[in-house]
Write a structure and sequence with these properties.
With about 150 residues, the protein is α+β, with helices and mostly antiparallel strands. The protein has a single domain (about 5-150), classed as Beta Barrel (Lipocalin), CATH 2.40.128.640. The protein has one helix at about 5-30; strands at about 60, 70-75, 80-85, 90-95, 100-105, 125-130, 130-135, 140-150. It has an 8-stranded antiparallel barrel with strand order 1-2-3-4-5-6-7-8. The longest helix has 26 residues, at about 5-30. The chain starts with a helix and ends in a 6-residue tail after the last strand. About 30% of the residues are buried. InterPro entries: DUF306_Meta_HslJ, HslJ-like_sf.
Length: about 150
């Protein structure tokens, strides 16, 4: 095995370990992030009267499990699990007013021909009806997904 291949395999192993640790730690949380992003409260992102926050607990978006197609699942515990169609990503989400924020996102970095990896740049999202629109850290919209049947990541 050449040095570059060994380094790539080592990097993939580290990234998968980080993803697994993130999922495990998110599952250990005693409660989900509250509407203002602080840990605690009743739920991750239920509608808070007067806040305009979207109800996105236990929702799935995009083509779940379809190679080459992006998807995202948001759980009531504040876990975000998705795929850009090639790479898997996981981390946490929280609601800040009408915006969803994604934090501690870890992702694999595989190369897949003809796959647009826009979802890997996610930082925030907004929901309008059955569409979630993702933006990067500069606030630029990077893509949208349609809501689909909830597919629990566990």
């Amino acid at each position: 095995m050449n040095t570059q291949s060994t380094r790539s395999n080592r990097l993939i192993g580290v990234l998968l370990t980080v993803c697994a640790a993130t999922v495990a730690l998110a599952g250990c949380a005693s409660s989900a992030p509250s509407i203002d992003g602080a840990v605690g409260g009743d739920s991750a992102a239920t509608d808070n009267p007067g806040s305009g926050a979207p109800a996105v607990e236990n929702t799935s978006w995009g083509a779940q499990g379809v190679p080459g197609e992006p998807s995202m699942t948001l759980t009531a515990e504040g876990l975000a699990v998705g795929s850009d169609g090639c790479n898997t990503l996981s981390g946490q989400w929280r609601s800040k007013g009408t915006t969803l924020e994604f934090v501690e996102i870890a992702a694999t970095e595989a190369f897949c021909a003809d796959v647009d990896t826009w979802l890997l740049a996610l930082a925030t999202a907004t929901v309008a009806g059955d569409t979630i629109t993702f933006s990067d850290s500069s606030g630029t919209e990077i893509g949208s997904l349609q809501q689909t049947e909830f597919n629990s990541p566990r």
